[in-house]
Every structure is written in C-alpha cells, then in structure tokens.
Amino acid sequence: MNALKAIILRELQEHKWGFVYLPWIVATFMSLVVVLVYLGLTEVNTENFKFSTEIYSDPDVAQAMKESTLEQRSGAIRAGLLVLGAPLVIALGFAVLAFSLSTFFDERKDKSIIFWRSLPVSDTFTVLSKLLVATIIAPLLVVPPLLVLHLISVMVGSIFFVVADIVPFFWAWEAYPFFDWIRVILSLWMQSLWTLPIITWIMLTGAYSRKPVIGAILPPVVISLSEQVAFSSSTFFDAVMQRVQPWSRSEAFPIEYEGLRVAEIADIPLLFSLNEFWIGIAVSIIFIALTIYFRSRSDYSSVE
Length: 304
Prior knowledge:
The chain has one domain. Helices cover about 70% and strands about 0% of the residues. The protein is built from 13 helices and two strands; from the N terminus they run ααββααααααααααα. The chain has a two-stranded antiparallel sheet. α2 packs antiparallel against α4, α4 packs antiparallel against α6 (about 125-165) and α4 runs parallel beside α9. The longest helix is centred in the middle third of the chain and has 41 residues, at about 125-165. The two termini are about 35 Å apart.
C-alpha cells in the first residue's frame, strides 16, 4: 500500500500541470465567462448553444421560470452545468492521453527507469499503478474544480435573478442536483473503462517506441486505410471513434438519448452487458501485458 501511494504521488507530481493545474485553469476561465455573461459584458454563441442574459428580458421566459416545477428546474440546471463542465472533461481527456503517451517513454528517455527498476517493485505493479492513475485517480481530480465551477455558476445566476426580480434567490438552489456528483464520478470511471483500449494502446507505444506519437497514430491509420482499400469498409475506424465519445452515446448502447447528458447509474449495468465493452477489456489486457513485457525488457538505451 505504501508503494502504491508513493507511485501515485510521484505521478501526480510529475504530471501536475495536466492533472492538477489544467482543470483549475479551465474552471477559473469558465467561471470568469459565467460572471461576465451575467454582468451583461459578454455572451456565448455557438451553433447549438447560446448563453446570454437577453433571454430573461422576455416576459414569457420569466413567467415560465416562476411556474416551473422542481423537476423542470433540475433538468434545466443539469443541462446548463453539463455544457459548462464539458471543457473540463475534454481537458481531462487530453491530460490522460498525454500522461499515457509520456509516462513510459520519459523514463526511458531520461534513464530514470534505472532508478525505478532498482526499487523492490515489479514491472507489473508499476504498470498497473500508472493505469490506476489514468483511469481512477485522474477523473477524481477533475471533480473539485468542476464542483467549484458549478457552485459559482449557480450562485452568480441566483444573484442575477434576484437583482433582475425574476425569481427568488433559492429558485435554483432548491432544484440543484447535489447527489448527481456520485453519478458524475461513476460516469467518468465508466468512461475510463470504455476508453481503456485507447489508453493502454498509447501506454504500450510509450513503452517500446522511439517515437511514441508516430507509434500510436501510424498503425491505426494504416489499418483503417488498408480496410478501406481492401474491403471498402470502415469498421475499425468506426470502432476507434466510438471509444472516444461518451459511452452512453455509442452505437452499441441499447438506449438512445436525444442529447448529451451524464448517464444514469442504472445505465452502468447496460454497459457491462455489451459484448463491445468486454472485447475492449480483453484487448486492453493484451496491451497491458505487452507493456509489462517491453518495460521489463528495456535496455535503458532504447531512446536516443
């Protein structure tokens, strides 16, 4: 247990910009945007989303807010906060991919693997502990800044509603889905398992390749192009693309949701029932085994 704790702390220290600082930077920026919007100094317009205070000047909107039920308010808050939190989740995804690519490559490049392998810790334990950081610890680290962003957004919105005499201060707080945080954490962990084949593949390339970026990208590209030329199909490419999107929105998932949302806890057993999920786990186990093999075979000079 002490060895596991030491490895986790080491990884967080070495990759603190991606796992610790980046989520807080993104959350701070998003909080600033929320404050500026409610002050009327800016607005956010995208193809599918508009965030502006102009909508509240419509008497029908104000009346609908006053007459809304707790369930309707909770749904609106969930949708709005999901959009605000999306950049943090995207940043987390890039941080995990960067960590997976560099963690085994860097120790070969700077020869620190000589030191780490001198410790009484097996290659298997080291690889699995790094995988634990990427799939379990990293999602937990994004929750505090995400929570702060949510609370700031609801607080600023509540103050605006009171000042504009639209609804009472506790209009949003009464409907805030506080217990959704359990759902958020579980959903992020399930996403890690769904994306596990990609994470472990990238770790594998970092463990053996002299140029891990090329090693991670080139084989999938070659396979996709070869399949397209030989069979006029894109099964492999589509399967990879399915793994980088939310697991509850994959084509294999038995429930089709209309919009982007945090999956329900009841959806998790459905994920475990998918053949595609277990195929991904099996492929990931193969990649993990190969990563352990190549790390154990490292001659400490495989990177110039």
